[in-house]
């Protein structure tokens, strides 16, 4: 799945399959300007930062069990969001410090370090990397991913795929080749 935020005409948090199909709104109320998103891949939670409402909130992948983690003026200056173990990590754009926030109760906020010009944060940890298994976009005997001549995008499961073409090309009637 692909998760993303939108604060155009109607602010929301959405998800879809990797090929863009099955687009679903998971948060569309009491949300104004979601600017950062982080996923708890193990427990299947979506965290987001709303700088207009000055809050950090969480829902499960279906948009249920919504909770506010923390709220207040300090949120206005945050950018970027990452989750790891018991904490959320973010950057205060006002003083360029990395903050650690307890993700269960919003307390225990600590400044960990200061970075120049940081706008985004990511946590890389081996446990957060999904195990690789065979999938529909693996190279075929001719070296083409999923049998597609240009792009192979996973669909509703790792067993399904959609072929797409680069800009300027049209997908052929076989659903795999680009012309």
From TrEMBL:
A GO term for molecular function: Wnt receptor activity
A GO cellular component entry from the record = plasma membrane
Q: Name one Pfam family in it.
A: Ldl_recept_b
GO-annotated biological processes:
canonical Wnt signaling pathway
Residue ranges of LDL-receptor class B repeats = 1-43
Q: Which SMART domains match?
A: LY (SM00135)
What is the designated name of this protein?
LRP1B protein
Say which species the protein is native to: Oxylabes madagascariensis (white-throated Oxylabes)
